[in-house]
Amino acid sequence: MLAIVGDVKIADIFAKVEKYFASIPSRPTPPRPDVNEPPQKSERRFKESDKLAKIPALAIGYHMPPRSSPDAIVGAVTAGLLLNGQASILYQTLVKEKQVAVSVSGGLNWPLGNPLEYNGPTLMTSFMVYPPSVSEDQLVAAYDAAIAELARKGPSQEQVERTVAKMRSDWFGELEIPINRASALSHAVLFEGNFDSVYEIPARIAKVTPEEVRSFVAKYLVPTNRTIINRVPAPAEKTSGAKGEK
Amino acid sequence: MKNALTVILVLLLAVAAQAQKEAQLPKDLPPYGTQPAFQPPEVKAAKLDNGLTVWLVAQPGLPKVSFSVVVVGGLAADPTDRAGLSELLARTLNQGTKTRSAKQIAEEIQSAGGDLSIGADRDSISVSTSVLSSKAELAAGLLADMLENASFHESEVALAKRNLSDSLRQREAQPGFQANRALARVLFGSGPYSVIAATQDSLGRMTADELRQEFSRRFRPDQAIVVAVGDFDAAKMTTMITEKLGGWRAPAGPPTKFNAKPTGPAPHEVTFVARPNSVQTTLVLAGFGPLRSDPDYEAAEVAVAIYGGTFSSRLVTNIRED
């Protein structure tokens, strides 16, 4: 799949592609390996120590449904609600209200790519840097409370609408950049056989309802489906005179 | 550093480079074509009665508009005993106005399809957002409210100080940050350009009142430019921006002149910063370059690109491949 986006004359470019690419011999496509992962049965938690870190950080990843599932688009909107920008639920709850995190970032298929460009297993990841005065348990408890509330009550219609507006705007922003538009088009063709979905995405995300988000959270954002990694600064080593500028 | 002075700077991550044979190019490649003439987009420039400079670039396309507001005076304009105050100012500018809470601001800009990015550079502070064309007016109204009425509420400033302190700890662990901080001190001594960020010490002393004071000193229409680029009608956008930002008033008195140009040559010096347990070495080479207004400026930019500014530059090729 070759996608060319930019200031080109279509007739010229087809002729050039024919001239320089047509002679490349075709080969049989190798069978797609099975990259599916077995369902996770229980929560996994790890603690790592980092000799160079000065403050701790924690990441939580949940397995996501495959791209072909009707749940995938709901997952994208749910990730937007939880993690997209300063108005997101996790930023507002963890950084502003409970003040247990310094920063929150993440998303669906984060940081590998955007929430709509994957074909194999992927995760919804939340990454939080948090103050040394806050414990891992405090942070995870605050995180879980935010998720539990969303699983119980779901988002408001207004919350979903502004998240969808942000995602629509982000998507147009992606398409404005030629290399990103080429990437979106070629991925869609490879994964789905045509590029219609690239231009249908704004309409598809706009159809997601608060109730769909609520039931997505209740189904996927559960402890048994997640892994938590807590990375903390290693205890200070005794160093003598190795510090500072010389 | 965009206005006053260019520092020619090359940042290298020294990686274990394997010597590689130069790749053979495919046969029968066509010759390089001629570079098509570059047509810069048309800029519609205007100045409002309050002194605000407005630049509009209307380009039909996807239904988006990006706004950028830049005011003169950044890190180099901070009071000497409040190094990095601009950073805290940038973090708190969107944390409430006289009539909107921080949360309302975040939600409103999200409903327009945007986020606010606010950053302090050495010579300026900039506020930008990229929204849906249909919500341009909402975004412009919100920007106007922040530019005129940011409130720097005590509790928001206190939280921002704690979070900036922690994120500073995080950055202070990064080799690039350590190298650039040391570099600025060596190049600029105790001058205004020696500051690239707050310190724990200076941050501890900053107050909400100081932020309000610096805010009114720098955020004035006669020292600001607003640029809008995107899919809009230029005449309508002019009317809308005039309506939203025309009422922004400059305080009495002339604006502060920020001039941080260093004197004398760059020092010839090698500085080491120890970073125990580091698995790589970060190397920064720098010297003073021409001013942006100098005729040599563009030539210096090209020279730096050839020397070490791009992945195919001589320095990178030399270190990685040769």
Describe this structure in words.
The complex is a heterodimer of chains A (246) and B (322). Chain A has helices at residues 10-21, 71-83, 89-97, 136-153, 157-176, 178-192, 196-206, 210-220, and strands at residues 44-50, 57-63, 103-108, 123-129, 226-233. Chain A has 246 residues and is an alpha+beta fold. Chain A has one domain (47-233): Metalloenzyme, LuxS/M16 peptidase-like (Cytochrome Bc1 Complex, Chain A, domain 1, 2-Layer Sandwich). Chain A has a 5-stranded mixed β-sheet with strand order 1-5-2-4-3, with helices on one face. In chain A, helix 2 (71-83) packs across helix 8 and helix 5 (157-176) packs antiparallel against helix 7. The radius of gyration of chain A is 22 Å and the shape is globular. Chain B is built from 10 helices and 8 strands. Chain B has a single domain (41-279), classed as Cytochrome Bc1 Complex, Chain A, domain 1 (2-Layer Sandwich), CATH 3.30.830.10. In chain B, helix 3 packs parallel to helix 8 (234-245). Classes of the chains: A alpha+beta (246), B alpha+beta (322). Chains A and B meet through helix 3 and helix 5 of A and helix 2, strand 6 and helix 4 of B.
